[in-house]
Design brief:
The complex is a heterodimer of chains A (587) and B (180). With 587 residues, chain A is an alpha/beta fold. Chain A is built from 23 helices and 20 strands. In chain A, the strands form 4 sheets. Chain A has a 6-stranded parallel beta sheet, with helices on both faces. A 6-stranded parallel beta sheet of chain A has the order 11-10-9-12-13-14, sandwiched between helices. In chain A, helix 11 runs parallel beside helix 14 and helix 16 crosses helix 22. The longest helix of chain A is centred in the N-terminal third of the chain and has 15 residues. With 180 residues, chain B is of the alpha+beta class. Chain B is 28% helix and 37% strand. In chain B, the strands form 2 sheets. In chain B, strands 5, 6, 7, 8 and 9 form a 5-stranded antiparallel beta sheet that branches. In chain B, strands 2-3-1-4 form a 4-stranded antiparallel beta sheet, covered by helices on one side. In chain B, strand 6 and strand 7 form a beta hairpin. In chain B, helix 3 runs antiparallel to helix 4. The radius of gyration of chain B is 21 Å and the shape is globular. Classes of the chains: A alpha/beta (587), B alpha+beta (180). At the A-B interface, helix 8 of A face helix 1 of B.
Chain lengths: 587, 180
Amino acid sequence: MSEMMTGAEMVVRALQDQGVEHLFGYPGGAVLPIYDALFQQDKVKHVLVRHEQGAVHAAEGYARSSSGKVGCVLVTSGPGATNAVTGLTDALLDSIPIVVITGQVPTHLIGSDAFQECDTVGITRSCTKHNYLVKSIADLPRVLHEAFYVAANGRPGPVVIDIPKDIQFATGAYSRPRDNQHKTYRPTVKGDLNQIKAAVELIAKAKRPVFYTGGGVINSGPHASALLRELARLTGYPVTSTLMGLGAYPAADRQWLGMLGMHGTYEANLAMHDCDVMINIGARFDDRITGRLDAFSPRSKKIHVDIDRSSINKNVKVDIGIVGDCAHVLEDMVRIWRETSPQIDKTALTAWWTQIDGWRARKSLAYKNSSSIIKPQYALERLHALTKDRDTYITTEVGQHQMWAAQYLRFQEPNRWMTSGGLGTMGYGLPAAIGVQMKHPKALVIDVAGEASILMNIQEMSTAVQYRLPVKIFILNNEYMGMVRQWQELLHGGRYSESYSQSLPDFVKLAEAYGGHGIRCSDPASLDDAIMEMIDTPKPVIFDCLVAKEENCFPMIPSGKAHNEMILPDFEGDTGDIIDAKGKQLV
Amino acid sequence: MPNSATHYPNAPKTEPTARHTLAVIVDNEPGVLARIAGLFSGRGYNIESLTVSETEHDKHISRITVVTSGTAHIIDQIKAHLDRLVPVHRVVDLTLQGEALERELALVKVVGKGEHRVEAMRLAAAFGARTIDASLTSFVFELTGSTDEIERFIKLMTVVGLTEVSRTGIAAMSRGPDAM
């Protein structure tokens, strides 16, 4: 016979049965019964954040650094739910599996504009993969388990469960999770074998191939990354990746071209433009990647592997679309490749690599270093050199520092890089780092930040100190919203409207005020020692790295331009003339 | 619910509920249907039937017919909330205006042979349904009528080989010379 318990107890029991170890949240009137049930157990550890947005980003960081585990959040009704909206949208755009439980006013008060009431399922409908309002205790156990299934299966995403307070008090029968958690939602994971065979044939016949991989490989688990490496080894073809996919392929490998897209390397973007066969594994032809669509890789046959059928032929028409999970499809590809051991055109491939090496020689990530002022690129190169042999996880905020981090921190493994790609959420990095550190207490977790972004969720320093999470915040402080300033330079005649960071706090004192440790560095010669001090400090650190103020993030595909129209770092001329009137309308 | 553990008031005592048909005149602009459907779901009201079509093309005005149910208080709230939406011109409660005319259209597919086939034809004729498609083994009937009539027809067709039903939902209008 199933066990009888209250709705609040069911929530906590379901979290335990789903293997949730950490729950990020903030209490309030409409979730008090659940907090009471949490108080009376010790299996699920609650992490008290300082703002609900922080709770959702922390759960995202937790999920992304643990590959496959669902992040979990508990917040109250009304403002608790609305504060979670940015995090939900972030998780939707980056396909991160999280379950967010929100309290709601009692069922009989729904629609009466009660205190702290909002239409949570209405508000979150367009920013969740799925959401539920539970109006009967009989539905609660099923919905709780179903939510975890929906969040983690298919293309992952955020799921909201809105639970009115009377349902939390009501008593009903609890049921444990079953194997099939949903009556209709059954995502395809195995790709169509005939399509995969056709894809392998096309790959084998390529003369100028490129693997274009994305976050789907990361989401598919470490096995997918291993298979991608195997397929790349078997074929000898070059590999590039989106921002979301960094780490799936080791950056130290010879076949690695670096990141592609708006701030990608010259060799990656030109390989995409000039290839004859493009093999897209788990990426979605995002506008940061394609640049001008009508000039995107004009002469290539395109293969696209994606778990989401609606991603195929959405922005770019492809020749072979394979709906399936990256690991499953890659496994089939590797197996078929081994079985058929096709003859590849070695002469053509050698010529292709020669051409790529020519592009590489252009050194698109070169920058003019300085002995008097820290260049942001140099700061990240040193950060990488001093952390690469450690158990390191990197999160970022959003802006120039994020792009420089993607360019100069060279990731060797998946799940080590947590950044807000799709939504571009400033304020993501610190709470995400807290989530990562919660999952990996002994690891070195660094939030690469800008001085503007970090202030968007700086209150989470308090969370880090409370739970003794020694996260490191590495601020590239140029006293500008750097990416906004860069675009104003390129698009708006250098009129830096509101992009200067006035009245910044003293970050060293700020760190100390929270109970952390503060470091400031402005001298390139003492940078290494300062970074080592940060690494060796066993508590939260804010590192205020004062860098060159008006450095631009290059290379760059300007808006409205194609892959072969990049601006390179040694560009000399008037940056105000690069983008034409039509390009200025794009973002 | 233990009242001492919550700051919210108790649920009100249960009151009788009634079914109401509302005609809502709106600007036919993008998202107007989502606003109306969202109002119902967000405030926890029921929608039993919903039909929409543009009725005045030159003015881009649509008429939405909503059938809903609730206590007198809830029906009153629904009308007030609908009326408050910016693209809504007016809301008329056809049920309060007396015996409104309510009709819906159903397409009913029946598959069968022999006696069942003959009986399906006879019943369709008795209900005044039109036969709009026929094959050696199937019929598609079109029936217009009140919801009750359509329910009765579908129930009878179930016995003689019903395989598929499509219904439009209710379109409604008040009786007499007065237009809304």
